[in-house]
């Protein structure tokens, strides 16, 4: 095979084809649109492929979502030319392309199915745009006119003769597509440069199933191949792809002078990891003496303002950390990272060219908070972790996605910790992942980590597996596994796994096998095999609550369900019994080693306590389970909290609060006991327990901020937070300095937030003064860490003047994180008319970017006044919202969860059920499960309020009146 781009016999020379295709674009795209509008119609074209009617389900291969196994791709050559200017007539942005794919026939077949979605192959007046040759003879192989099965997203070629096992073939195509602003496949992003000129960026998001929107391909993760990419682009723009650019040449096409950049062939890789980008971005890079070239790309003004510097400074450190962690060099010669103005997810691990939304990559000390900085460090670590785990070694099919995403979500903390060792990153997984997923995994509508390959078929089903279970439960159980094996053995197994399967694909049990070998070789003491232990965590949904009776040492486990009335219909082979590793300790003594609970109940010698001694289990919350104790032990733990709270490790202080509140919701302990865990908070200065309490009290706000409980609850919390507020006031010398610790900075924000939320006057004066100073002086002197909170409370306290000021600042913000803070704070206003106007803005992508639409609606729903407005809005606009944003994965379930979180009345439950019924035909996409979860949650909330409102009201009344010491003494 020659080095150049081979053009099949059916084609003229490359450049001309691209030009011809361009000329016929408008007509071609008109065809695409008519296909879209009426998928059932057969659209006649002169010679090109035709569309067949939507199939009724059949056994035909083209009606199956999975590709047949007869053909295996080896290498592709793909040349794409995205137009960064709209067509003057149609006003559409388009791209044209040609590609060929060489594949091997591994089973005789007379059928070629190749994924192709929304691409058009016909240009009237031109020759047929698809041809096939046998590689050994270069003889053309005839086929019937190609046609499209749009439901399964195939181009179908029915051949006149059979392809023969063991022989190679090459399929040539020539096509056009729309460079739409739909955030999927090959799409366009827009921004205004410093002169207010609109600039277009052509970029990609292939995962999970949109590579087929950019060029015809065997679009399944196991269909790994080599890719040779060429991009055609205007002078003054840069073209990027996974490989290094080998050369950029000047070409003339149709009288137009252009550039053509060719990229180094990629290693064998999956289609979902491809990326093609054309932009006028600039970059900064690391020292060229480093082995791997690291570059950070972004808008010119962002790079010039130094917004890429932090990212560049930590990327090398994290990359080296993972090379060492995996004991495997970074598999590519370069690592590009690029910040895009429009991007659906947070970031995407395209091999060698990682794409980010701007807030996840760009940092500036004046505008970015420490939380923004942490997000950048963790997301970079997450995506870099995928360069090996996911990219070099890839799970065979999307049903095992949890291992890919769960793994990256676990090791992102290790990578970020390497870059920022003083931040206590490794502790934060407990709040961000373990607690987050406990909330959904405690519902009967949860599901196991694993699913069967044939259960995940359609693109919508594939999108659905990108959920909190895959990410956060995956991360949590892998952290537990790594803990009981030890990190050393865990990484040893990981290293041999990566080594054996480099450039190949796996199933999750392959990892268990390697970990088992490492455990055996190092004589790790396990009660049963790694697989047997892990099966109980990955094959059944949910998690246990382990109850310890410290009077007898009896330990029992039980499936933890938030709603004690809910019935579990899903069967489990393990009857909801887990093999539980328990790390535990006794007053002041941290024991080494793990006690295994393998049955429903057991008696553990020594797990008893009396006097003032307590037992504490699940040390540092490395286990994926909750813990309950006998009343005596709870009392002794609460006593320890109020007398000497630092005797209990900080993560466990956070856990005691979280366990207590959730056990109370499940009616396992009393709500009063849960509330008592907050009594010591006036002496607590650490972030994690406070954050855990606030997360749980948020539920109280959601349930009670429209009821008579609200006032007394505010009084109590104001009392509890006042000392923290004063502590930070002193520490920062009247809010001038910044606390030195990362987590202390977070807790300062908590202090201000809760103080203002509970109406502490000094706090309200503080934030409104700061905000007014900015509004009137034009200089924003508010520290970046505090901006979100200050903006929100000032806008809530203000009216249209404050809102309009913040809105104009939002529109002119040059830094994405600043815009983000304002966008969230704009939802804090108490004015219904402004909130309704803001909701309308979410449908206008020139005001609120599409990527931000659903999260803006959720922000509005968080506001007690915005909640019903957001719900009405979502109900009325459902089909439009679904059509526009339904493809996105996380955002969609977040939307449904977000607007229904406060639901706690029969009436709201009826509305929710009605909504489900009314829109069954439209669908809920990746929000399907979220909708069921919301219904279950609402039912549980109704019950909970019925049972708890009176005692909660009384407790808050009692405890807000007395001073803290008196409260402790009456209990
Ligand atoms: N592979 C995902 C991005 C993705 C998600 C693509 C859903 C398609 C559908 C990426 O590795 C990822 O997980 N990104 C996260 C960030 C991470 C730190 C949790 C994201 O986008 O939020
Ligand atoms: Zn990921």
Describe the model.
Helices cover 43% and strands 18% of the residues. By secondary structure, the protein is an alpha+beta fold. Among the domains are: 9-55 and 70-280, Immunoglobulin-like (Sandwich), CATH 2.60.40.1730; 347-538, Neutral Protease Domain 2 (Neutral Protease, domain 2), CATH 1.10.390.10; 831-971, Zincin-like fold (Alpha Horseshoe). The strands form 9 sheets. A 7-stranded mixed beta sheet has the order 5-8-3-2-11-14-13. The chain has a 5-stranded mixed beta sheet with strand order 16-17-18-20-19. It has a 4-stranded mixed beta sheet with strand order 1-6-7-4, with no helix packed on it. The protein is globular. The model is unreliable at 1-48 and 964-971 (pLDDT under 50). The structure holds ligand BES and zinc ion. Zinc ion is lined by residues 349, 382, 386, 405, 408. It is a single-pass type II membrane protein. It is found in: Cell membrane.
Which ligands accompany this protein? ligand BES, zinc ion
Query: How much of the polypeptide forms β-strand, as a percent range?
Result: 15-25%
Tell me the overall shape: globular
In DSSP terms (H or I, runs of 4 or more residues), the helix count works out at 30
Helix content: 40-55%
Mean pLDDT over the residues: 92
What top-tier CATH class of the domain at 9-55 and 70-280 fits best?
Mainly Beta
Going by CATH, the architecture of the domain at 9-55 and 70-280 would be Sandwich
Largest sheet: 7 strands, mixed
CA distance, first residue to last residue: 83 Å
Secondary structure tally: strands = 31
In CATH, the homologous superfamily of the domain at 9-55 and 70-280 goes by the name: tricorn interacting facor f3 domain
Going across the major beta sheet, what is the strand order? 5-8-3-2-11-14-13
CATH topology of the domain at 9-55 and 70-280: Immunoglobulin-like
């Amino acid at each position: 095979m020659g080095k150049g781009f081979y053009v099949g016999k059916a084609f003229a020379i490359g450049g001309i084809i691209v030009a011809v295709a361009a000329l016929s674009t408008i007509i071609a795209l008109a065809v695409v649109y008519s296909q879209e509008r009426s998928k059932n119609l057969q659209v006649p074209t002169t010679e090109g492929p035709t569309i067949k009617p939507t199939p009724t389900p059949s056994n035909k291969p083209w009606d199956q979502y999975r590709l047949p196994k007869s053909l295996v791709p080896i290498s592709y050559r793909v040349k794409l030319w995205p137009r960064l200017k709209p067509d003057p007539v149609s006003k559409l942005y388009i791209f044209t392309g040609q590609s060929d794919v060489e594949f091997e026939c591994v089973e005789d077949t007379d059928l070629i199915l190749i994924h192709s979605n929304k691409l058009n192959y016909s240009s009237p007046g031109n020759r047929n745009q698809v041809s096939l040759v046998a590689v050994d003879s270069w003889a053309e192989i005839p086929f019937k006119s190609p046609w499209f099965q749009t439901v399964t997203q195939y181009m179908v070629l029915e051949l006149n003769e059979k392809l023969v096992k063991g022989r190679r073939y090459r399929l040539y195509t020539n096509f056009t597509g729309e460079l739409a602003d739909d955030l999927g496949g090959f799409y366009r992003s827009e921004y205004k440069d410093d002169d207010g000129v609109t600039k277009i960026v052509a970029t990609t998001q292939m995962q999970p199933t949109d590579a087929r929107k950019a060029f015809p391909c065997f679009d399944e993760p196991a269909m790994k191949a080599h890719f040779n990419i060429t991009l055609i682009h205007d002078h003054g723009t840069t073209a990027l792809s996974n490989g290094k650019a080998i050369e950029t040449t000047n070409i003339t096409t149709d009288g137009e002078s252009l550039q053509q950049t060719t990229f180094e062939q990629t290693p064998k890789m999956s289609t979902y990891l491809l990326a093609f980008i054309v932009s006028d971005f600039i970059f900064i890079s690391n020292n060229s003496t480093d082995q791997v070239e690291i570059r950070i790309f972004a808008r010119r003004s962002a790079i010039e303002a130094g917004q890429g510097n932090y990212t560049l400074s930590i990327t090398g450190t994290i990359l080296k950390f993972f090379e060492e962690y995996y004991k495997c060099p970074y598999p590519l010669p370069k690592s590009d990272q690029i910040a895009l103005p429009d991007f659906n997810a947070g970031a995407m691990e395209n091999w060698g060219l990682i794409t980010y939304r701007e807030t996840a990559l760009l940092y500036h000390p004046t505008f970015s908070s420490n939380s923004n900085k942490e997000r950048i460090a963790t997301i970079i670590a997450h995506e870099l972790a995928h360069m090996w785990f996911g990219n070099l070694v890839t799970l065979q099919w999307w049903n095992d996605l949890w291992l890919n995403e769960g793994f990256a979500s676990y090791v992102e903390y290790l990578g970020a910790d390497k870059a920022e060792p003083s931040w206590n990153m490794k502790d934060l997984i407990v709040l961000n992942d373990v607690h987050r997923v406990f909330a959904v995994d405690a519902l009967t509508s949860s599901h196991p980590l694993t699913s069967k390959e044939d259960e995940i078929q359609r693109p919508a089903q594939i999108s659905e597996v990108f959920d909190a279970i895959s990410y956060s439960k995956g991360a949590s159980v892998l952290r537990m596994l790594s803990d009981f094996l030890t990190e050393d053995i865990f990484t040893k197994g990981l290293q041999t796994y990566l080594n054996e399967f480099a450039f190949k694909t796996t199933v999750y049990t392959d990892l268990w096998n390697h970990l088992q070998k490492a455990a055996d070789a190092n004589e790790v003491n396990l009660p049963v095999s790694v697989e047997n232990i892990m099966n109980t965590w990955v094959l059944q949904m949910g998690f246990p609550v382990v109850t310890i009776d410290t009077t007898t040492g009896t330990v029992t486990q039980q499936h933890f369900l938030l709603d004690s009335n809910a019935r579990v219909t899903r069967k489990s082979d393990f009857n909801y019994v887990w093999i539980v590793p328990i790390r535990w300790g006794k007053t002041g003594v941290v024991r080494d080693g793990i006690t295994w609970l393998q049955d429903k109940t057991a008696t553990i010698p020594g797990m008893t306590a009396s006097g003032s001694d307590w037992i504490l289990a699940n040390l540092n919350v490395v286990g994926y389970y909750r813990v309950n104790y006998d009343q005596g032990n709870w009392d002794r733990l609460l006593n320890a909290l109020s007398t000497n709270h630092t005797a209990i490790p900080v993560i466990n202080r956070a856990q005691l609060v979280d366990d207590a509140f959730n056990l109370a919701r499940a009616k396992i302990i009393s709500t009063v006991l849960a509330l008592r865990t907050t009594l010591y908070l006036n002496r607590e200065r650490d972030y994690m327990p406070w954050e855990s309490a606030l997360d749980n009290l948020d539920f109280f706000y959601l349930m009670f901020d429209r009821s008579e409980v609200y006032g007394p609850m505010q009084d109590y919390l104001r009392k509890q937070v006042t000392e923290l507020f004063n502590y930070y006031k002193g520490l920062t010398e009247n809010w001038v300095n910044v606390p030195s610790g990362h987590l202390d900075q977070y807790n300062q924000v908590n202090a201000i937030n809760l103080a203002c939320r509970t109406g502490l006057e000094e706090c309200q004066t503080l934030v409104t003064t700061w905000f007014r100073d900015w509004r009137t002086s034009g200089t924003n002197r508010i520290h970046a860490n505090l901006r979100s909170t200050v903006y929100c409370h000032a806008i809530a306290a203000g009216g249209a003047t404050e809102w309009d000021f913040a809105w104009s600042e939002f529109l002119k913000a040059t830094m994405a994180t600043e815009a983000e803070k304002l966008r969230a704070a704009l939802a804090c206003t108490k004015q219904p008319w402004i909130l309704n106007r803001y909701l309308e803005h979410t449908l206008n992508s020139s005001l609120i970017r599409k990527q931000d639409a659903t999260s803006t609606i959720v922000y509005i729903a968080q506001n007690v006044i915005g909640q019903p407005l957001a719900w009405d809005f979502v109900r009325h606009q459902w089909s439009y919202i679904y059509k526009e944003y339904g493809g996105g994965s996380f955002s969609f379930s977040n939307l449904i969860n977000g607007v229904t979180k406060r639901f706690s009345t029969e009436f709201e439950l009826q509305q929710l059920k009605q909504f489900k019924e009314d829109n069954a035909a439209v669908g809920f996409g990746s929000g399907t499960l979220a909708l069921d979860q919301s219904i279950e949650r609402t039912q549980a909330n109704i019950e909970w309020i019925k049972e708890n409102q009176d005692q909660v009201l009384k407790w808050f009344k009692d405890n807000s009146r007395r001073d803290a010491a008196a409260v402790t003494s009456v209990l």
